[in-house]
Amino acid sequence: MARMQRLLMNLFDGWFQLRRRFPKSLLDEMAVAIASGEREHRGEICFAIESRLAPMAVLEGLDAQARARQVFAQLHVWDTEHNSGVLFYVLMAEHRVVIMADRGVAAAVSRQEWDTIRDHMLSSFARGAWREGCLDGIAEAHALLLRHFPGNDKDQPDELPDRPVLL
């Protein structure tokens, strides 16, 4: 995607609909879905939603993948006991979803499996089904984590916030 096109998307493309697409009720549902799934496996899911990138960041070449790496570090997704953190990063203005997994998860779950979840979410978002896309993506991630990181020590602390973070 050309830098100028990305700049225009970040300036004008629906980023102002953040609260309409992600109302408090959906954020609450997502938090419950994340928390309940994490009780079944050792993975930790963190969900971050950003409406748009700053114009100067776009002009300097920051893209969704690079921004997701920044958010991964900023939210300490890498800082879990089992290296089992997973970040869902949604960049609304550019219609991008990036799923990043910490090294413990990345060693067990293929990039293709995460890309399939991302594609399902993007398909739902394109239809305007934001709730469905988010909740289905979370459920699919829980299924992968349950397969590769089964069981959860009931005393294991919740290491990442369950409530989605609006950036």
* Average pLDDT for all residues: 93
Structural classification: alpha/beta
In the CATH classification, which architecture applies? Roll
Count of helical regions: 8
The CATH C-level name is Alpha Beta
Note the run of SSEs as H and E.
HHHEHHEEHHHE
Into which percentage range does the β-strand content fall?
5-15%
Q: Tally of extended strands?
A: 4
Note the main sheet. 4 strands, mixed
Shape: globular
* Unreliably modeled segments: none
Helix content: 40-55%
CATH topology: Diaminopimelate Epimerase, Chain A, domain 1
Terminal-residue CA separation: 23 Å
Number of domains: 1
> Radius of gyration over alpha carbons?
16 Å
Give the strand line-up of the largest sheet.
3-2-1-4
Describe the structure.
The protein is α/β, with parallel strands linked by helices. It has a single domain, classed as Diaminopimelate Epimerase, Chain A, domain 1. It is built from eight helices and four strands. A hairpin with a 4-residue loop joins β2 (85-91) and β3 (96-101). The two termini are 23 Å apart. 39% of the residues are buried.
Give the topology, please.
Blueprint (H helix, E strand, L loop, with lengths): L2 H10 L5 H4 L2 H15 L5 E7 L4 H5 L4 H11 L10 E7 L4 E6 L1 H4 L4 H16 L3 H19 L16 E2 L1
Parallel strand pairs: 1-2, 1-4
Antiparallel strand pairs: 2-3
Helix pairs in contact: 3-8, 7-8
